[in-house]
Amino acid sequence: MTSTPRDSRPPPPQASQIGAPGFLWALVGIMAAIELVLSLSDSGYIGATGLRWQAYALGAFWQPVFAGTIPPAWPGQTVAMFLTHAFLHGGLMHLALNSVILLSLGKFVTARVGPARTLAVLCLSAVGGALLFGLLAFTNAPMIGASGAVFGLVGLWQANEYYLRRRHGLTLKPVFTAILGLAAANVAFFVMLSGGLAWEAHLGGWLAGGLAGLVLLRNR
């Protein structure tokens, strides 16, 4: 890491509170409650063992439904699945990873743009991730998880870093390096998971969050 003169280094944004805001904990709580029920069902403790796939059938994002090659399971699914997919996960580890990033980055983003705009960016990024997945992915497998929304927060954070560096006359190389590193990590995980990574949703969420950040943070 290269050093910068003390007076020219951009000050880190300060959060107005300790810990993540309550609305982020509420979102994580909803996702955790859903995953807990599905995990208990998988283990045979409650309900039928097929409950997870029933939840996926009703709430996951399905590219064939988006493309119109198969009918929706219920009226309104074609629209609702752009958001409902973000509340479903593939297990506790999947949920934990998304939740940690959501709470940590969400705290930072909320300090910069406020709770309402942070929630709007999360929704926009979830929709953007699902939209790009629907346009680029050709699969019958369900797309689930809050990763698109999380990558939206990453995009907004990088937009903030971009503006800070420009404002203080610093090199933009670390911003572009971070973007390339993010792309490389997605490629690596795609290979490690044998194609089981919805990179299209990650990219769509990141683009939506980044563009939102360029607009929201332009004059801040």
Protein model, in words:
The longest helix is centred in the middle third of the chain and has 22 residues, at 92-113. The protein has 220 residues and is mainly α. The model is unreliable at 1-16 (pLDDT under 50). The protein is built from 9 helices and no strands. It has helices spanning 22-42, 51-59, 63-67, 77-84, 92-113, 115-136, 147-167, 173-192, 199-216.
Give a short summary of the structure.
The chain is mostly helical and 220 residues long.
Keywords:
single chain; disordered N terminus; mainly alpha; 220 residues; globular
Work out the radius of gyration: 19 Å
Share of residues in strands: under 5%
Tell me roughly what share of residues is in helical segments. Answer: 55-70%
Mean pLDDT: 90
Class of secondary structure makeup: mainly alpha
Tell how many strands the DSSP assignment holds.
Answer: 0
Largest sheet: none
Q: Determine the N-to-C terminus distance.
A: 27 Å
Helix/strand order, N-terminal first: HHHHHHHHH
Number of helical regions: 9
Weakly predicted, low-confidence segments: 1-16
Can you tell me the overall shape?
globular
How do the helices and strands line up, and which of them pair or pack?
Layout: H1 22-42, H2 51-59, H3 63-67, H4 77-84, H5 92-113, H6 115-136, H7 147-167, H8 173-192, H9 199-216
Helix pairs in contact: 1-5, 5-6, 5-7, 6-7, 6-9, 7-9
